Amino acid sequence: MNIPTEIRVQAETLREQINHHNYRYYVLDDPEVPDAEYDRLFRELQNLEEKYPALVSHDSPTQRVGAQPLAAFDEVQHVVPMLSLGNAFNDEDVLAFARRVNEKLDSEDTVFTAEPKLDGLAISLLYDNGVLVRAATRGDGMTGENVTQNIRTIKSIPLHMLGNDYPRLLEVRGEVYLPKAGFEALNKRQRAAGEKAFANPRNAAAGSLRQLDSRITATRPLAMFCYGVGQMEGGTLPKGHAAILQRLKDWGLRVCPETQTVQGINACLEFYRHIAVQRDQLSYDIDGVVYKVDDPAQQQILGFVSRAPRWAIAHKFPAEEAITRLLAIDVQVGRTGALTPVARLKPVEVGGVTVTNATLHNQDEIDRMDLRIGDTVVIYRAGDVIPKVASVVLSRRPQNTQSFRMPDQCPECGSDVECEDGEAILRCSGGLFCPAQRKEAIKHFASRRAMDIEGLGDKLVEQLVDAGLVQTPADLFQLKPETVAGLERMAEKSAANLLTALEKSKSTTLARFLFALGIREVGETTAQNLANHYRTLDAIMQTDEEDLQTVSDVGPIVAVYVVTFFKQAHNREVIEQLLVQGMHWPIIEAVETESLPLTGKIVVLTGTLNSLGRSEAKEKLQALGAKVAGSVSKKTDLVIAGEAAGSKREKAEILGIDILDEAGLLELLEK
Ligand code: IVH
């Protein structure tokens, strides 16, 4: 197909605009246009390329994700070896390095460029005529792996350098890493999907680059900072390391913004202390700083020892991993009732901080590591990230250890623990009573859409609970004006207003009251449906899971939450007290349903229906007065069996219950 010139120009202009905005966003950290505008340009280019496939170029910003997974990574020989750095673990080591440098250069005040030492993976990017043609890992320094497909998915790495004054061939080197926020988000996703969480951002970055399918890598929010060059042909670079970094930045490559050029080794040590303080606030993990002699002529004089330059050194922060013993696993209850296991550790110094606890997330995490009390464990801590148990040293496991199981009862209030659907989260069902959930339960109870207690805001709830005046929602109604007036920021007038509001709130509706109880997954609509269906609180408190599922909007999960909630003696007590305090609502009249064709009939739907959805069928049957249940029992009056109906149909046959097929259902609904 012949592509009109104006279309070619349009595509090229779009690519330039997109690359420019990428540069503003990722390299300068100063976006010029809102995300929506960027997305619009991107879609416009995608549409053009879809219409004219011959327009697609390998370096188009739309072509970041490869279609085909690789069978294996190819080897890449590094023309200029990728070296490592010597380490300094304290000021003395650094001063010794400076003495060696100064002696050899015969200078007192060498100029250094100081950079954070990024905790990721060293990567080499090869640009041929400005186009990214190959990306490789460091490997052993001589031979690495070709990870081009994966590196291309990293949006902050330009597929085409900016400007036109770049060398014909240029190898740029730097560190690919996973920002802390991206790491937390990735682990959350991994856990939710029942997959293994990564121990730290570095492992996560390495795991992401090791994917043979670049579509997976594309979902990992990797980033890169460039810190040097390797091979170069057909071009020149400025004289000085910092100037080279600035030039890389002009060409569209990201450079760490913390980098500074300083004079003399004391200024280097000052930089180290400055970065150490900043460390927790940085959006990426670092494990030290690097000092590099800035002048290339001086670098050449200094040369190399074995595999490291004599002109640079890594000044490391204290180790972030340590080994200690797991003394116990405690279970904490959060303010929304979530149960979290916490590792109690023999105190150990990690990264300059004494660690005594670590989060374990959930039972799955404990099972995956087969963590047992008494185990020797590896603790990992990075910056402000809460310490984690990274792994178990199995060879040091004492005899007679036992697997750990999360409790069936809430350690705070003894209520039953329930498992949240699909997730490994356990939750206490004693919402109204549990001390851990007190504040949240009362805030919700008082909120506008629940009991609507005017003047009882979050702050006041916290004050009341902290002062020990209120433990459950029922205690609110026993408050005395003088105690309330005695609280900070409360005067007689506001106290009186609150008591009036409390009194007023007693006159409510059953739906609001149900919503106010804070039963999991029971929002306003479900509360209203429950109220309409059962009409009295007693009926709801006495019903079972099977019957609950005949209520519109209520499935098996919500049914369990409702039954479990009302089964808790503590919750029932609080409800009883609330009624004694005078909570009341209008009687709900029975809707006249006697005349409907299916009034009082219990119907079960099973198998696949072709002409209407399951919930649509349920609604239509309910409109005819039927109760739609989830399982077949002796009480069932009618089973609607769609295609491929299985055990429910069989059970209905055994029990001699009437069965209708889809055609029969449609006929019934016609009536
Ligand atoms: S320069 C010849 N600069 O540290 C010097 N390396 O032990 C080559 N690293 O493999 C490296 N941040 O993965 C340099 N700002 C930085 C760095 C850095 C992290 C890593 C890199 C390298 C290792 C050397």
CATH architecture of the largest domain: 2-Layer Sandwich
Helix content: 25-40%
CATH superfamily of the largest domain: DNA ligase/mRNA capping enzyme
Radius of gyration: 33 Å
CATH fold label of the largest domain: D-amino Acid Aminotransferase, Chain A, domain 1
- CATH class of the largest domain, named Alpha Beta
Whole-number tally of structural domains: 5
Number of helices: 24
Shape: globular
Number of strands: 24
Main sheet summary:
7 strands, antiparallel
* Low-confidence region ranges: none
What is the strand content? 15-25%
* Distance between the first and last residues' Cα: 60 Å
Ligands present: 2-(butylsulfanyl)adenosine
Mean pLDDT over all positions: 91
Q: Would you tell me the structural class of the helices and strands?
A: alpha+beta
Annotation keywords:
binds 2-(butylsulfanyl)adenosine, alpha+beta, single chain, Helix Hairpins, 5 domains, 20% strand, 24 helices, seven-stranded antiparallel sheet, OB fold (Dihydrolipoamide Acetyltransferase, E2P), five-stranded mixed sheet, 671 residues, D-amino Acid Aminotransferase, Chain A, domain 1
Describe the protein's architecture and organization:
The longest helix is centred in the first third of the chain and has 23 residues, at 5-27. The chain is an alpha+beta fold and 671 residues long. Helix 12 (438-446) packs across helix 13 and helix 16 (510-516) packs across helix 17. The mean pLDDT is 91. It folds into five domains: 5-63, Helix Hairpins (Orthogonal Bundle), CATH 1.10.287.610; 75-316, 2-Layer Sandwich (D-amino Acid Aminotransferase, Chain A, domain 1); 321-396, OB fold (Dihydrolipoamide Acetyltransferase, E2P) (Beta Barrel), CATH 2.40.50; 424-588, 5' to 3' exonuclease, C-terminal subdomain (DNA polymerase, domain 1, Orthogonal Bundle), CATH 1.10.150; 602-669, 3-Layer(aba) Sandwich (Rossmann fold), CATH 3.40.50.10190. It contains 24 helices and 24 strands. The strands form six sheets. Strands 14, 15, 16, 17, 18, 19 and 20 form a seven-stranded antiparallel β-sheet that branches. It is globular, with a radius of gyration of 33 Å. The structure holds 2-(butylsulfanyl)adenosine.
